[in-house]
Amino acid sequence: MARIEVDGLTVRYPGAAPVLALDALDLDVGDGEPIAVIGPSGCGKSTLLLVLAGLVAATEGSVRVGGEALAGARRRTALMLQDFGLLPWKTVEHNAGLGLEIRGVDPMTRRATVAAVLERLGLAGFGHAYPAELSGGMRQRVALARALALEADVLLMDEPLSALDALTREDLQGLLFELWQQRGHTQVLVTHSIEEAVLLGRRIVVMTPRPGRVAAVLDNPEMEQPGYRSTETFLRRCVALRQMLESEGAFESAAGAARAEA
Amino acid sequence: MKRPASRVTGYAAATVVVLVVWEAAAAALRTRALPSPGETARVLVERFGADILPHLGVSVSRVALATALGLALGAPLGLVMGRSKRLDAVAGPLVFLAYPVPKVVFLPILLVLFGIGNAPKVALIALIVFFQILVTARDAARSIQPSAILSIRSLGASRWQVFRHVVVPAALPDVFTALRISTGTAIAVLFFSETVAGTDGLGWYIMDAWTRIAYPDMFAGIVVMALMGVAIYELLEALESRLCRWTRTGTGR
Q1: Binning pLDDT at 50, 70 and 90, where does residue B96 land?
Q2: Shortest Cα distance from A243 to chain B (angstroms)?
Q3: Residue range B37-244 in CATH 3.40.50.1240
Q4: Which residues of B touch A81 (CB under 8 A)?
Q5: Could you report the per-residue pLDDT of A208-239, keeping only the tens digit for each?
Q6: DSSP 3-state of A151
Q7: Residues of chain B in Cβ contact (below 8 Å) with chain A
Q8: What is the pLDDT of residues A72-93, one digit of tens each?
């Protein structure tokens, strides 16, 4: 069970000019539910993920993951960042097994687990390569391998595909969906992309500009249909989400940021 | 990746150039102060076992010990300073006050404190290596990508594990560069300190030959000291390519 319950979450970064990143945010993600979070740049989406990963403490409010109040990094939560969080000095094998190594899993078990996961993600034979020798899409797969090796039941992703070209991106969106369907983990995907949100979020959470709050939630139950990407429902949902973002005044900056990153 | 074969060829070619220039200079100048390569080689072979080798041993152990000391103290302190704002606030100003001071001016003080044996020479070289490594390690640790740290912390890494898996390897290539650079300075300072006090080491051997007007001996000493520098540099290079394999592949570091 890995339900995420966020209640009245406020995060204020201290300093000479304190920044209110999140303001009394409420969010409930069911066990095994995939949600997407979308909103303008600087709306506190990343802060929300860091809080869920146990890396940033709540100033006010409570966060419970898997029924327990969050205090620091949780064993079965995996965080994936935009640049994949791979360590350049470790081989694919060691990067994928890093979580297990930190948890003190013995090398034999570690190697076996990692080998199986790399095989599953189409990385068999790349165990001894360094990240610099891989394409962006393959690096992303290594980051996924790390999460799978941990048997993560919560997968937190911050713009995980934004550095990739369009085709690789589609490919990995498919892989993320497939993995979620097979494993049924709870998934929070922060993204700038309307299409990605509609493809991978059974619910899509729209955030307000800073300080971040939940502006609206869009239900998207059809995302589990096979071939959803080419259905009319998908297109209509994208349009609906776009309108929602526009009415929240979030669209301009979200689209601008997406352009700036492209 | 440099292939060892092309490296050897490079060294061989450079040696030939040096020998040709030297031979030509010796023939042109016709002075006792510049013996030819052949004469130097003869003296070198003749004197090596009995005379030069013991001095070489003394010099090598001084440099090795001093470098190890400087590295063992400078690298950890620099890395911790780079990652801890509090320690950096305390130690940073001290370091930056001391860093630009040429350490070699402390030799007289060290001679007074430690006598004329190995200790002042080792201490002086260690001091130089220490500062070079300290400053480099600190800067390297400061410039680590925040995402690398976040990502490993999200896996539940302790402070020590963050150091072991991220901070140390991230700084390693820079530390090696600093080591190779400070080797040059270390050998120069070694020469200087050996000529100032004591009766052993290659520096002393070279200057002793000079006072005896034994120029071929002097040149033999110079050649050996130069080769010692090359050997240390190559050793560090080999260590680096073993320990920093990822820098030799692709574009990443």
Answers
A1: confident
A2: 33
A3: no
A4: 147, 150-151
A5: 888 888 989 999 999 998 889 999 999 999 99
A6: coil
A7: 145, 147-148, 150-157, 161, 165-166, 169-170, 172, 244-246, 249-253
A8: 888 889 999 887 789 999 999 9
Place of tokens 């060892």: B4
ipTM comes to 0.81
* Residue B168 and residue A87 in contact, taking contact as beta carbons nearer than 8 Å: no
Alpha-carbon distances, residue B180 vs A57, B233, B236 (angstroms): 43, 6, 7
Domain boundaries for CATH 3.40.50.300 within chain A = 4-76+153-255
CATH entry 3.40.50.300 includes domain A4-76+153-255: yes
Asked if residue B1 lies in contact with residue B250, where contact means CB atoms within 8 angstroms, the answer is no
Distances (CA, A) of A11 to A27, A28, B20: 14, 17, 72
Q: How many residues does chain B have?
A: 253
Contact B250 A103 (CB under 8 A): no
pLDDT in tens, B14-62: 999 999 999 999 999 988 889 999 999 999 999 898 889 999 999 999 9
